[in-house]
Amino acid sequence: TSSSQHTVYYGKTSSCGSCGAGTYSAAGSGKCTTCPTAYPYSAAGSDSIEDCYMNVSKGYYVKTAKDTSATKCSGGYARTAHTVYYGKTSSCSQCGTGKYSAAGAETCSTCPTAYPNSNAGSDSITDCYMNVSDGYYVKTANATTATQCSAGTAKAAHKVNYGSTSSCATCAAGTYSAAGAASCSTCSAGTSSSAGSSMCTN
Asked: What gap in Å lies between CA 62 and CA 54, rounded to an integer?
């Protein structure tokens, strides 16, 4: 509240007027002061500059106290719209495992069902990955299931990121594999094979 210098007659009283929204005054102040440009809001009757606040848009935060503008959240982080009072700061929350976000995100997105894994702080859907078992590979980008390696090829367990593919390696001459093998086996003594064989022959 505030009151400018004025006259009060004997037997009468006076009172301080309440500062309106967007202004404040300290105790004993004779006037209401407008909140800072970057923190233009306050409730009526505010008594400190620290009652002034900024409405921060989704995907942004106030990095340092008294910043005059908000900063965009980095990829891998997110923040909903919120209020920051003068002299205070805010922060963006890191996306957890299995999630990702682009810069300026309000919330973190969940990785696709077939590619459910990601490291904390991932900033793209392409950071999401599938754990592929021994003897399997991802034939086409964004496939929802892995394909078994054919006989004469092999592939150990591996990760494939969303949008990427993998392939099975052809067994070299002198080795072989059945379908779904993690690795190629060496032919026993006295037998041989050509590249890509499913068995060795005498």
From this structure: 9
Backbone angles phi, psi at 125, to 5 degrees: -60, -25
Global pTM value: 0.82
Q: Which long-range contacts (CB under 8 A, 24 or more apart) does 70-77 make?
A: 72/103, 72/104, 73/101, 73/103, 73/104, 73/105, 74/103, 74/123, 75/101, 75/102, 75/103, 75/105, 75/123, 75/124, 76/100, 76/101, 76/120, 76/121, 76/122, 76/123, 77/101, 77/105, 77/121
Neighbours of 126 (CB within 10 A): 14
Q: Which residues contact 9 (CB under 8 A, 6 or more apart)?
A: none
Tokens 């935060």 sit on residue: 61
Note the pLDDT of residue 30. Answer: 76
Q: How many CB atoms lie within 10 A of CB 63?
A: 13
User: Are 27 and 45 a contacting pair, CB within 8 Å?
Assistant: no
With a cut of 50, say whether residue 15 has pLDDT above it: no
Distances (CA, A) of 116 to 57, 95, 110: 29, 14, 8
Sign of the four-CA dihedral 121, 125, 127, 133:
positive
